[in-house]
Automatic annotation (TrEMBL):
<feature type="domain" description="Gfo/Idh/MocA-like oxidoreductase N-terminal">
    <location>
        <begin position="6"/>
        <end position="119"/>
    </location>
</feature>
<dbReference type="InterPro" id="IPR050463">
    <property type="entry name" value="Gfo/Idh/MocA_oxidrdct_glycsds"/>
</dbReference>
<dbReference type="Pfam" id="PF22725">
    <property type="entry name" value="GFO_IDH_MocA_C3"/>
</dbReference>
<dbReference type="InterPro" id="IPR036291">
    <property type="entry name" value="NAD(P)-bd_dom_sf"/>
</dbReference>
<keyword id="KW-0560">Oxidoreductase</keyword>
<dbReference type="Pfam" id="PF01408">
    <property type="entry name" value="GFO_IDH_MocA"/>
</dbReference>
<dbReference type="GO" id="GO:0000166">
    <property type="term" value="F:nucleotide binding"/>
</dbReference>
<keyword id="KW-0520">NAD</keyword>
<protein>
    <submittedName>
        <fullName>Putative dehydrogenase</fullName>
    </submittedName>
</protein>
<feature type="domain" description="GFO/IDH/MocA-like oxidoreductase">
    <location>
        <begin position="131"/>
        <end position="266"/>
    </location>
</feature>
<dbReference type="InterPro" id="IPR000683">
    <property type="entry name" value="Gfo/Idh/MocA-like_OxRdtase_N"/>
</dbReference>
<dbReference type="GO" id="GO:0016491">
    <property type="term" value="F:oxidoreductase activity"/>
</dbReference>
<dbReference type="InterPro" id="IPR055170">
    <property type="entry name" value="GFO_IDH_MocA-like_dom"/>
</dbReference>
């Protein structure tokens, strides 16, 4: 590749704005066309963001200068759209999750490999300077050997703010597959492959009511568990506990703690590209009744803050440099496998072995990675 690399976007819903804004700021890529089932929406987004062409998904796939397709469709369409892009000879960056079933996702990766094409999968928040600062701290031994982690995402649910929330409560979504990829991609990026999981889950309501927008007052069915507690065991020996809920009156987002042999580390919300990293050291002795406040050691964040699209940028540079990219399809597949295994554990009441793994540790992002530099 010699840049800027031609990009085509399929699916121009809510999340497309942040992608299109960020991609326009990266000199190494150029968005050439956007496509959507709703042609008027594609036209509107093209005009809003200065994209020179718009049309259907087929128009994006047929564009001769598009080298990478960005798949921002709904989760149920991810495999179909990504597979069509691979068949058209394009690299793929897809929103999370990679797909909704193991067989379809695995076939997608095999087809891409056979054609020498790359697949990248969101979330790319793990490339942000917030998470990377924390990852470096762990690697440097700030808390000794990592032993276990705890993560929490709890909210009242997207039905109180999203104008069309039904898809977030349908098969393939819920807090497990909508928010879980952020937390479990972070855990796998730190600890490596998951060996087995156990989970409990339940629903608060069988139906929900849309609270805002033109369909306010309309009910829709809830198809998946809306609160889950997940235990994970990693091949390297670490463990983690994770709460994911759309049922909590108490809002608590982005809790991500790592506990090691010599201290504990709080790291940024894995749904954000920046945030606080700080550690506390293990006490060697303490007098009864004299606990007091622990001293936090703040760790300065290093790196340039951008947003969604960072993983795509890393992928196109990695192709040009013939190196692995960070947010690979393999990573996305393993996280999907973990989440589907958690759902199966909810249904069976048993631990579930995770059959997939990642073949190598997830690469770190260099501190001097500059999204705004022209490198291609």
């Amino acid at each position: 590749m010699s840049g800027p690399v031609g990009i085509g976007v399929i699916g121009v819903g809510v999340i497309s704005d942040t992608y299109l804004e960020n991609l326009a700021s990266f000199p190494d890529v150029e968005v050439l066309i956007v496509g959507d089932l709703l042609l008027d929406r594609a036209k509107s987004q093209a005009e809003k963001h200065g994209v020179p062409a718009w049309g259907s998904a087929e128009d994006v796939l047929a564009h001769p200068d598009v080298q990478v397709v960005v798949n921002l469709t709904i989760p149920a369409a991810h495999i179909e759209v990504s597979a069509a892009a691979i068949a058209a000879g394009k690299h793929v960056w897809t929103e999370k999750p990679l797909g909704l079933d193991r067989d379809g996702a695995a076939q997608l990766l095999r087809d891409a490999s056979a054609k020498g094409l790359r697949v990248g999968s969101a979330p790319d928040t793990v490339l942000g300077p917030g998470f990377q600062t924390a990852k470096r701290a762990v690697a440097q031994g700030v808390i000794g050997e990592p032993m276990f982690a705890s993560t929490t995402f709890q909210t009242i649910g997207p039905d109180v703010w999203h104008p069309s929330p039904a898809f977030l409560f349908a098969e393939g979504a819920g807090p497990l597959l909508d928010m879980g990829p952020y937390y479990f991609t972070g855990l796998v990026s730190l600890f490596g492959s998951v060996e087995r999981v156990a989970a409990l889950g339940r629903k608060k309501f069988e139906e929900r009511v849309i609270a805002t927008g033109p369909n306010a007052g309309t009910t829709f069915p809830v198809e998946v568990p809306t609160s889950l507690q997940v235990l994970t065991s990693f091949a390297a020996g670490q463990q983690a506990s994770s709460l994911l809920s759309f049922d909590s009156a108490l809002e608590r987002h982005g809790v991500f703690e790592i506990h090691g042999t010599e201290g504990s580390l709080v790291i940024p919300d894995p749904n954000q590209f920046e945030g606080r990293t700080a550690s506390v050291q293990a006490r060697t002795s303490i007098s009864d009744g004299a606990w007091g406040e622990q001293e936090w050691i703040e760790i300065e964040q290093e790196g340039v803050v951008v947003g969604r699209g960072l993983g795509l940028l890393d992928m196109v540079r990695a192709i040009a440099e013939d190196r692995p990219h960070v947010a690979t399809g393999e990573l996305g597949f393993h996280v999907l496998d973990v989440l589907l295994s958690a759902r199966e554990s909810v249904e069976s009441g048993q631990f579930v072995d995770v059959s997939s793994s990642i073949s190598a540790p997830v690469p770190a992002v260099p501190v001097d990675f500059d999204p705004f530099a022209k490198t291609l």
